[in-house]
Amino acid sequence: MEEVPARARAYVAGVALVALVLVRPPHGLGTVPWWAVGLLAAVYAGSEHLARRRFAGTCYPVLLAGAFLLSPPAAALVPLPGALLSTGGPRPTPLRRVWRAAELALAVWVAAQVHTALGGHGALRATDFPFALLPALAAVAAFCLVLALLDGGILAAAEHTPPRRAWRGLFLRSVAPVGVHGLAGLMMAVLWRSPYGPLSALLVLLPMGVSWWVFAQYHRERAAHQATIRALVQAVDIKDGYTRGHSERVGQASMMIARELGMDEDRVEVLRFAGILHDVGKLGVPTRLLRKDGPLTPEERRVIELHPEYGHEIVRGIGFLGQARAAILHHHERLDGSGYPYGLKGAQIPECARVVAVADAFDAMTSTRSYRRARPVAAALDELERCAGAQFDPLMVRALVRALARDGWHPVVTAEEAPRTASGVPAAGAQQAGR
Does the first or last residue of the chain, that is N or C, have fewer Cβ atoms within 10 Å of its Cβ? Predict the structure, then answer.
């Protein structure tokens, strides 16, 4: 808890106090049977433990079933044992457990209130599934909204994230996956109210378990991909130390351009991979050239200029990189045909390579190197715009300018101190950037 800012601890305490008030109604739980609350709480605690330990997920169907079946105060009790006793996830400190319990209790309480106000309990008692959909979907939306508001608040309080960035996209990203959980919760609630009883409702968790397993396999594969990329980037950083952090920043700038152009998230991810790995071919360049203290001879520069082809060969067999391989090969091509390795012109250069070329040059100009200090962002953008049409694709340059004007430049890694390198002479504008 010592690492958590005081205002974040105060925020958690405030949310926990509100949740405590909501789960302690003045007249008890009324007609709600305690055994139902206890059963749902026990199922949630067990499912949550398994989901977070084995699948890195969470078991929202049981919570939403509680919101559909119980009164708001009773439904808010369901997540408490599972959240407070959780042993899964990163560093389950007491503060994290209290925060998780409080935010889930509030979200479930609001979802139950919305469901009750829209007559959801009556539709369930009549086992009228179609008419139960509208209150359930509204309750799911309310559940997502509360979680998004609270999660954005803790980001702003704990990590000093600007409010606009803290809440951006949280609600929309959660609606689809939590909506699926909501449908499963509704099926549990309908079966619970049916003649088959509560035990039949638990069968709904079996297909959910299968989906969690599939999802976990996907995340394990993704983690393996990330580990492969990290290993390659670390190898490049060790060999060519002056560019330490450069790869991650080029990946970040490539993502900004791709999103500004409206590319789907799969292509954005490919561009991130391409930016991170664009210089992996330097592994095939002699270290003495990369670290040479002085100007390169024409022969030495030709050897350096082979690194895109070396990089393409290194990643040729890595299937998940997709079009990133073309970006690695062609990110030093220029629109006027004066680039390398093949002197491609205009539209002959793959789109992903044109994105990475702009991101690479931008970071090279805004990073401190042994032979010059970093340029201001505005000066680097002016240089990119000056070279647009000859060296860079104007569309990509404009996309980066718009993205930076809106979001600013917050590089994830900086490399202020750097050893001397292969060029030994100052770059002449963008033409030398990102060599």
Answer: N
pLDDT in tens, 180-239: 888 888 888 888 887 777 777 777 776 666 666 666 666 677 777 778 777 877 777 777
Confidence of residue 334 (pLDDT cuts 50, 70, 90): very high
Residues 274 and 328: beta-carbon distance below 8 Å: yes
* Domain limits, the chain: 6-203, 219-431
Distance (Å, whole) CA 382 – CA 380? 5
The architecture of the domain spanning 219-431 is Orthogonal Bundle (1.10)
The Cα-based distances of 311 to 48, 199, 224, 338 in angstroms read 43, 57, 20, 20
**CB count in 10 Å sphere of residue 115:** 32
Tell me what the pLDDT averaged over the chain comes to. 81
Question: Encoding tokens for residue 294?
Answer: 């002085």
Q: Exposed/middle/buried for 110, CB within 10 Å: 0-12, 13-18, 19+?
A: buried
Closest CA to 39 of 199, 211, 182: 199
pLDDT at 135 over 80: yes
In the three-class reduction of DSSP (H, G, I as helix; E, B as strand; rest coil), residue 127 is classed as coil
C-alpha 217 chain-centroid distance: 18
Cα–Cα distances in Å, from 218 out to 55, 56, 214, 225? Answer: 10, 11, 6, 11
Interatomic CA distance for residues 161 and 334, integer angstroms: 38
Task: Give ∠ CA 370-376-378 in degrees, rounded to 5.
Answer: 145
Is the separation of the CB atoms in 140 and 178 below 8 Å? Answer: yes
Q: Which two tokens stand for residue 44?
A: 């949630």
Task: Give per-residue pLDDT as tens, 341-361.
Answer: 999 999 999 999 999 999 999
pLDDT at 428: 37
Contact status, residue 83 vs residue 58, Cβ threshold 8 Å: no
Weakest-pLDDT range from 132-136, 232-236, 303-307:
232-236
